[in-house]
């Protein structure tokens, strides 16, 4: 985006901000991705409600131990100009900040809070969710922190673990078991077979797991790539050293990502390279709608048994989301 577009979504450097989190990495990625585009450097405020208050979220009150003014509270004053939150357990805390600040704090909730549009001043919703309203921002993919500058820096200073891999390079981005998906023995076998088949074409593989990836899946993929690894055409991150995730995406000519994470698929789509999706066992209608829509706009294709080549414009929702939030924040402040 040009300078005018950048200015439209950047807030004054004096703007204070919090990100309310219960520690889920996927939620934090989206919140900090939005904050980055707003030009903010928010404080991470970690909440940890105890039972039974945790059981009552998002509808109940905050844990009394974490009420504003209590020693253990993550939401004690002074309150920020903006508070951004994601995850159902943070809903009572965001609403409490709004009340305790006398309405002064501008509140942003990321994803459906399940408590209606009155939960926050602005709510961001992915297109595949159904909540709509005057204060709801809708985009196709989630926000994240993988900006063009991040990829440019990665390409300018390649990770030594990847620099020697010959092209073409294929990123294999692995999720794992979750609420809606499972990594069954069949899925593990399929993924290992895919890795071996891609390597057999002469491509280099760069494999990055998530915290949810079953060890058996990583072991099977590593075994399938043993010949490629011996030939200097494979890298499987084992969790040691700096996470090379952004480096892997920056240097990929194609991507194969498991379809259990909207974040991972969305991050892949910002690269502009072909994104192949393998859907593990299970699923959810919302996930299907998400992948169908990305297929419709030409960013992804379901894995068909081979690498395919196509082009599309990179999809990056963070700047759009931030610009809309900035506009609404200025209106809220009367600026």
UniProtKB/TrEMBL annotation:
<protein>
    <submittedName>
        <fullName>Nucleoside-diphosphate sugar epimerase</fullName>
    </submittedName>
</protein>
<dbReference type="Pfam" id="PF06258">
    <property type="entry name" value="Mito_fiss_Elm1"/>
</dbReference>
<dbReference type="InterPro" id="IPR009367">
    <property type="entry name" value="Elm1-like"/>
</dbReference>
